[in-house]
Amino acid sequence: MLHYRTAGEGRPLVIVHGLFGSGDNWQTLAGKFPGWKVYLPDLRNHGSSPWFDSFSIADLAADLGSFAQELALGPCPWVGHSLGGKAVMELALGQPQRVTGIAVLDMTPRGSEARYQGFVPALRALDLDTVTSRTDAQARLEEVIDRPTLQFLLKSLVLDHDRPGRFRWRLNLESLDRNYPEIWKPLAPGRRWDGPAFFLHGALSDYVKPGDDALIQEFFPRARIEAMPGAGHWLHAEKPAEVVAALNAWLGEVG
């Protein structure tokens, strides 16, 4: 089963992180949803969850469905950012019995060219036998990865308890590298989910493009689509109070 954390008490709410992240990314905000017990799973090949050779949107949605079943969550709202949003969309389309509502942060059903293509090879090329600290790793990688992104990625570089003094990645880089094109493919067309859907994207982000509204509503006819002023792709980190307020208002409608 997927590794997970929880915060708060009440009805179940699941929040799913994006590519290269983990449930830890939402730990600070997870306690800000009154009346909800928030579940923060790590996606496969991320964080402390199991590693698999395969990695696709269908895999991620299947994992989330199994996660909900094993914890007996029942139908509940799901929130997903970026890749997590794509997995949540696929879950609603494929296993609607698991879902009472979806909130998708800065993602659409559309396919796109793969981003950050050099990141995984750069992380794989880092010699972990000689890395002495995260600062050391940062210095070695700064020439190929911008500092803000690198600092986020380095959250997944942790001490290896099986090799004292050495580091390891909490990312299955081999699988991510091999399956990287899979996660940028569009969702399979010709399907729809008629439940309440909230699509919130950063006004400064280019993940959601003009014309995506019509595509979103082909899949999710009841979708409400809004832009968060002054925010980019990482809107929950850039505008945390505003994103929490928007999600709590939406949860009040879904609940």
Question: How is the secondary structure organized here?
Answer:
Layout: E1 4-7, E2 11-16, H1 27-30, E3 36-41, H2 57-70, E4 76-81, H3 83-94, E5 99-105, H4 119-125, H5 134-141, H6 147-153, E6 157-159, E7 167-169, H7 173-179, E8 197-202, H8 212-219, E9 223-228, H9 235-238, H10 240-254
Parallel strand pairs: 2-3, 2-4, 4-5, 5-8, 8-9
Antiparallel strand pairs: 1-3, 6-7
Task: Please describe the structure with a list of short key phrases separated by commas or semicolons.
single chain, 255 residues, alpha/beta, Rossmann fold, 7-stranded mixed beta sheet, two-stranded antiparallel ribbon, 10 helices, 18% strand, globular
Number of strands: 9
Largest sheet data: 7 strands, mixed
Please indicate the count of domains.
Answer: 2
Give start-end ranges of low-pLDDT stretches.
none
Mean model confidence by pLDDT: 96
Provide the succession of SSEs.
EEHEHEHEHHHEEHEHEHH
What strand line-up does the widest sheet have? 1-3-2-4-5-8-9
User: Distance between termini?
Assistant: 27 Å
Question: What CATH first level of the largest domain would be assigned?
Answer: Alpha Beta
The CATH topology of the largest domain corresponds to Rossmann fold
- Helix content class: 25-40%
CATH homologous superfamily heading of the largest domain: Alpha/Beta hydrolase fold, catalytic domain
* Overall SS class: alpha/beta
* Rg of Cα set: 18 Å
Continuous helix count = 10
Bin the strand percentage: 15-25%
CATH architecture of the largest domain: 3-Layer(aba) Sandwich
General shape: globular
